[in-house]
Amino acid sequence: MNSESLPITSDRNGRTTLQAAVRPELFLECVHCGLCTSSCPTFTELGDENVGPRGRIYLMRMITDGTLDALPTVRHHLDLCLDCRACESACPSGVHYGRIIEPFRLAMEEEKHRGIAGWDWFRTFVLFGLFPYAGRIRLAMKPVRLMQRLGLYDRFERLGLFKLIPGRLGQMATLVNPPVDQGPKLPSFLPAIGRRRARVAFFVGCVADAMFRHTHWATLRVLQQNGCDILLPEGQGCCGAIHFHAGSNSGARRLANTNVDAFRLDEIDAIIVNHAGCGAMLKEYGLHWQDDRRAQRQEFSEKVRDINEFLDQLGPVAPTGEIRAVVAYHDACHLRHGQQVIDPPRKLMELIPGLELRDLPESEVCCGSAGTYNLNQPEMADRLICRKVENIVSTGAQIVLASNAGCLLQIGREIRRQRLPIAVLHPMDLLDLSYRGEQPELPGHNGR
Amino acid sequence: MKKPLTRDLRRCLGATSVLSELGDLRVYDCDGLTIEKRLPDAVVFPATTEQVAEVVRICSRHDAPIVARGAGTSLAGGCLPIGGGVVVMLTRMKRIIEVNVADRMALVEAGVLNLQLARALTGTGLHFAPDPSSQIACTIGGNVATNAGGPHTLKYGVTLNHVLGVEAVLGDGTVMQLGPLGDRAALDLTGVLVGSEGTLAIVTRVWIRLTPNPQDYRTLRVTFDSLDDASNAISDVIASGIVPAAMELMDQGILAAVDEAFQFGFPADAEAVVVIELDGPSVGLDEQRDRITEICNRHQAREILQASDAQQRALLWKCRKMAVGAVGRLSPSYCIQDGVVPRTKLPHIIRRITEISAKYSIRIVNVAHAGDGNIHPILLFDERDADQVQRALAAGKELLEDCIRCGGSVTAEHGIGIEKISLMESLFAPYDLKMMEKVRDAFNPGGGLGLGKVLPSPHAPTLLHAAVSIGDV
Amino acid sequence: MFDSIFPGSETIQVAHQSEVAEVVAAAYAQQRPIYPVGGATSLGLGAVAGKPGTVLRLAKLNQRVDYPSRDLTITVEAGMKMAELAKCLSAEQQRLPIDVASAESATVGGVVAANLCGPRRYRYGTVRDYLLGLTVVDGTGQSFSTGGRVVKNAAGYDLTRLMIGSLGALGVITQATLMVRPVPEMSAFVVVPLPSLEKAESLLASLRTSELEPAALSLVVGDRLADDPDRGAAATLWIGLESSEIEVRWMLDLASRLCREQGLPAVFIDAPDRVASIWRGLTEHAAVRPDQRAATLAVELTVLPSRTVAAAVRLHQFDPQASLLCQAGNGVILAWFSCKPENAGELVTRIRKAAEELGGRVVVTDFPPESRLDRSTIWGPPGPEIRVMQRIKRQFDPEGILNPGRFIFE
Description:
The structure holds three protein chains of three kinds.
Chain A: H1 24-28, H2 41-46, H3 53-65, H4 72-79, H5 86-90, H6 97-112, H7 121-127, H8 134-140, H9 142-150, H10 152-159, H11 167-175, E1 189-190, E2 198-202, H12 207-211, H13 213-225, E3 228-231, H14 241-245, H15 249-262, E4 270-273, H16 276-283, H17 285-288, H18 294-303, E5 304-306, H19 307-314, E6 326-329, H20 333-336, H21 343-350, E7 356-358, H22 373-376, H23 378-395, E8 399-401, H24 405-417, E9 423-425, H25 427-436
Helix pairs in contact in A: 3-6, 13-25, 19-21, 23-24
Chain B: H1 3-13, E1 18-19, H2 22-25, E2 42-44, H3 49-62, E3 66-69, E4 86-89, E5 96-100, E6 105-109, H4 114-120, E7 126-127, H5 140-146, H6 153-156, E8 163-170, E9 175-177, H7 189-193, E10 201-209, E11 211-212, E12 216-224, H8 227-239, E13 246-251, H9 252-262, E14 272-280, H10 282-298, E15 301-306, H11 310-326, E16 333-336, H12 346-360, E17 363-369, E18 374-381, H13 386-405, H14 421-427, H15 430-443
Parallel strand pairs in B: 2-4, 3-4
Antiparallel strand pairs in B: 1-2, 5-6, 6-10, 7-11, 8-9, 8-10, 12-14, 12-15, 13-14, 13-17, 16-18, 17-18
Helix pairs in contact in B: 1-3, 8-10, 8-12, 9-11, 12-13
Chain C: E1 10-13, H1 17-30, E2 34-37, E3 54-57, E4 64-66, E5 73-77, H2 82-90, E6 94-95, H3 108-114, H4 121-124, E7 131-137, E8 143-147, H5 159-163, E9 172-179, E10 181-182, E11 186-194, H6 199-208, E12 216-221, E13 235-243, H7 245-261, E14 267-269, H8 272-284, E15 296-302, H9 308-318, E16 323-327, E17 332-338, H10 344-357, E18 361-366, H11 375-379, H12 386-396
Parallel strand pairs in C: 1-3, 2-3
Antiparallel strand pairs in C: 4-5, 5-9, 6-10, 7-8, 7-9, 11-13, 11-14, 12-13, 12-16, 15-17, 15-18, 16-17
């Protein structure tokens, strides 16, 4: 990554303005061919050039050039972007769409929230006050977890009573996954099983830790099976992606620096992350901010590996436990488009004896989760998840896999809503079961 | 002034299917051709043929021109809303209505993507043969409008050869059903509508002829030290009586861009790579390959490699199809030409391209559906530099005039749009054009569909003299 | 000579393209009908001319204009005979894969205007797929050109397609540019005598879904080809195969295996003389013998390919003596019925009704002149798109002098 890829510029007062948010050169990479449009979930749904990648780049370019005002409709078109970056995979010219829309939306948010009129309770208390802290998320989920235990949650969901909870909070409540045994608190070190092949550090995160600690345990056991010593450094926290995408640039930078401080890079071969959204953010630490710590963040980023990618590069120890099930794999945008990790999870699943991996149509299309998108753009998110689940059902799969917390929650919610007999798991959940010779719980089997 | 128009459109389609605010309209002021821009008054998203017809009737009442638009990948300005008016988006009409495997045909709505159809046909053993490079994004309606081609037209023909009929809305709002059966008791109106660039009618549904998938392929990548040798070899293959499925030329400049995008490993110092594909029953392919190898060797081919599996073949084709888009890596702006010459004139025209490039100091890189004599020289420039823009336009014009002199044409598959209208008078005699006008008047009497496109008219923008408005984009 | 079709008309021969324009311009000035005639092989197609006028004979307009064989295109004047064209192309091992009966008389312009084709259309298509450009004289006597001489061309409207099958009603074709193909290395037939017409159904279905891509799939019922190995069978399927020798041998194997699977005997024919004779036979079969014209009704029925056999069975029910030539891969059936002139109209109506029940269409391609069938009986009732066609006709032929009353127009 060179300095050319640093997109953020500021006005004289040190504030990012819309016109100055993106360096004009980045727009010139786009030759307006339109080959990206069909990869874009929102364009595919609405068929409107305004909500396709080419159109959005054009809009941002016109605002930057000063030939178009940032009208409310224009802002809406940009807000509707999932930032799934499927268009980057499709673009033959290598346009860095993410590096255009992200700083631009950041500037849009900052501008919006500069005055008190733009103050947003949800953003301040929930997104920035809650999400970075696994403990607080767990605390906030208590009422929902209690309802789940009392059997009220299902009834609420069925009757649509969550709609009575205002807007985005109601959306959030329905996203909570059913309670499972999450396992004990994570240790600070786990040793390799057998010959040691690598020494890695594990990135824990916030939502992932609060809601998917069982997947963390599965991932750690898989790493042990593959001969990895694992450090779980104290002092690490949220990756900062939620702040960054919701427009809190400084908050995101603070979290990034905290994480950089927490990991001793010289002691480890890689930093392992098992959720795509966090992984993509960690890999971009070196890119987002220009200050004296940029080089450090860059070094950190270079060590980050998605778990699927890491195992594939290491050469996975073949699991032996047979799992007779039909599975479909959904590509999390931040893994496929954001990190270009496409084959490794599929190759890992093919190692599991007995498992039948079926092609999921449109597996590369966003499920509508997209960070906090499903909270801010519920209508479009709904359209996309319905399309996603329709595709999943068409495969006849008993299990759908995704390597990202947001996707797991989003797909899980719709599958519960439609009462479909399909389990939603992380690839590491399944791989771990195979190493341990155990079977997944399939909803169809226990009558749920 | 335009309010009653948008009010009527809203009443017909509902508010969410009509855009009329400035902030919503700007992205519709151009398509894949960015050197000319015009703002529409409204953009509509009909969901049914009846809605399209109603929109056409409303526009006709308000005297508003209409432009049909699909994916907006036209490289000739086919979607430019000249004179304002209404852009009719067909992107919400994307149902595949019927696939009839036994009769090898399908009925699809105009907004169905070429690739969407290809995917839907998986497992049927059939495919839609036209495979333009914009395949991942372009619509079948757009393919019909431009009579789209692609690499495999060499053996399988262009869109015309694969369209059995259409449903179309005429300029007065009447709906016409043509095909899918051949009809001796009628004029071939389908044949006329294919390639008419939305200026005769708005095609809303298409009956497609499906082609059986070949049993097997041999895909060769032939590297030549000299561009001249490559084009001579291509000409000789055609003359030899072999009909490859495709024969594609890429020159050194484009190879560099493609390699940067896909890391295929093309040799950096070779002047040309030719991709030759043979298809058909396995038994006959090796013999054909050997004959082609012999011809290429006679023309000093440096290296002939055969794709060893489906994955390699797919990657090679991806490189070829993404080549044009990849030029964004070479230059901030480009203009791709679509000339066609008799196939034996290929070596001549390729040499002329080099000369013209030098004459105007405009870098030109080449891809070509070489087996068809269809060249795609890509002129690279920076649209912020007005002088460069003028030189690029002039170079493009000279090149196409050369194609005409060779007995060729100025477009093989992209269409005339607005971009090449000024060349129509070089290509056709006045009375030839007059007859085309007569046909347009028969389909589209008011001239409201595709105003200012295809034929010379007072509405048609003359690019070479237009103040290039890129600076204010 | 043409009195039964163009009663009261005079005949003019032209030898230069410019003369065509002169003759038509003069006729335009006098509002006198022009009836263009090439080889006079398809005069049965269309109604009897209502008004006397000038029969414009184009057969002497027969020059080769340009044949850049390495480009695989050829430009000829419209009066060139198809046989002459074939001879010219064969010198370069090339051909136009469109089979036309009476090729010694039929002209290129006539083939375009009447949109003729034969058995090879299954693999190779029709005139629509080979015609690149035309020169035409319109109804005011002015000449215009369409298309071009290159194999791919998207410039302007495709008036070339408009002229195909327009039966001289939009203009007089004076010159044509065609795309041609290399002559395949080998040609062969698999001939399958069928115990019943119905038996063809399953065989055709299995052939169509196999990897076999025959050049022709012709089903012959009634009158047989001279080369038919078993004239006692109810029908004969001719599977024509063309390609390189190695591919043809492979296809012969595959075709006979598919026949065996259906329990049907298959006869192999690969001797070049016999193969050529069969192609000729299948092509000439389409022509009505002049001595039988007075009592023969010929129709062309079009249905979806998968309904060909069903349609053939229906036609057979009308008249077990009828002869059928089915291009089974295309859903096109040519049928000949012995019929008294006074019954022809009624028979057409019945056939058309049956065809419509199968989703098909019927046009009359020849009929006893005495029956004087009218246009709507010959061409069938027009659809709503006739309005556009009429507007085109008026644009191209404002005085209505081109072949009036013969085609779908007045």
